[in-house]
Write a structure and sequence with these properties.
Pathway: Carbohydrate acid metabolism. This protein has 202 residues and is of the alpha/beta class. It is 46% helix and 17% strand. It has helices spanning 14-27, 41-52, 66-74, 87-95, 107-116, 126-138, 158-163, 182-201, and strands at residues 5-8, 31-35, 57-61, 79-81, 99-101, 103-104, 120-123, 146-150, 168-171.
């Protein structure tokens, strides 16, 4: 069972990428991004894509320009996540056959991103928008729009965000911090998946 959780592995290093990717997949998280401000991010993405690309959607986060989209595609990445909504990045991602999740905050940004071809919207930072802000924006978005809350969300508040209409979550430091072992990540991932499953079934 695939959950609507994107693991954000900011700071991961290539030598640990495969083991941590495996830990996440085993726990039930199969959408994984390496932010491009991590050490040698393309090497980590390539390692994970080559080893686990058939089992998980591997890609990059903090993607700010078209050149980065091409670089991620070249190493086998299939997902582009950004903190902003740049139509050129979205268009390039879709042209390369990749999934596109731009960062948005306002209705104007949401609709511009969707018009450019985004597959889903990254609500970032979601703690600024809040649950009530999400409810207001969801009321005007197309019903099928995928929304992911990122920043200030975690197992403790999955239920309230899901009740407000969010599709899923992007989890960073609650899943992985630089220096943590694959075993540490596995434990955090299992806890997140358990909380997610409980919230979606309640």
């Amino acid at each position: 069972m695939s959950r609507n959780i994107i693991a954000i592995l900011r700071g991961i290093q290539p030598h640990e990428a495969a083991d941590i990717c495996a830990a996440l997949i085993d726990a039930g998280i199969t959408r994984i991004e390496v932010p491009l401000n991590s050490p040698e991010p393309l090497k980590s993405i390539e390692t994970m894509a080559q080893t686990y690309g058939a089992d998980a959607l591997i890609g990059a986060g903090t993607v700010l320009d078209v050149e980065n989209v091409a670089a991620v595609a070249a190493v086998g990445g299939r997902m582009i996540v950004s903190p902003n909504a740049d139509p050129s990045v979205i268009t390039a991602s879709k042209a390369a056959g990749m999934m596109s999740y731009p960062g948005v905050m306002t209705p104007t940004e949401c609709f511009a991103a969707l018009k450019a071809g985004a597959d889903g919207l990254k609500l970032f930072p979601s703690f600024l928008l809040g649950v009530e802000g999400l409810k207001a924006i969801r009321a005007v978005l197309p019903a099928q729009t995928e929304t992911y809350a990122v920043g200030g969300v975690g197992p403790a508040n999955f239920a309230e965000w899901l009740a407000a209409g969010v599709t899923g979550f992007g989890l960073g430091s609650s899943l992985y911090k630089p220096g943590q072992s694959a075993a540490d990540v596995a434990q955090s991932a299992r806890a997140a998946v358990s909380a997610y499953d409980k919230a979606t079934l309640s």
